[in-house]
What we know:
Layout: H1 6-34, H2 40-67, E1 70-77, E2 81-88, E3 91-98, H3 99-120
Amino acid sequence: MPLIPQEEMLHFENMIYLPMVLIVLERDRELIQNGPFKLKRPYLGILEGAIKQVQKELDKTKIHMRTHQMNLKKGVADDTFTEYVLHHKGFEDHRRYLNVRLRNRVEELVRTYFSQAELKA
């Protein structure tokens, strides 16, 4: 039996990926605001909607983690891997994520949040 239940791993992964998604979206928003776009509002509208959804999901995740004695710390990173240290109710687990996998998952999540924002727009 794993030390950290699979349903709790979803929350840890949200804490890894969602802050990265926010960074990407906020940088893109800045580029669009300062870039030579003719019609900025449609792009900014989708970005703003996506940012709100990510922030909402991140807030829920933080509350869940706090109430379930969960903590995440970034460990050692190099050109290939990034390590995260997961704490759950007294257990500690070290996991290494391939940086390419992190980037691909963030890209996948950006697409998902864009499609959700577009549906609400």
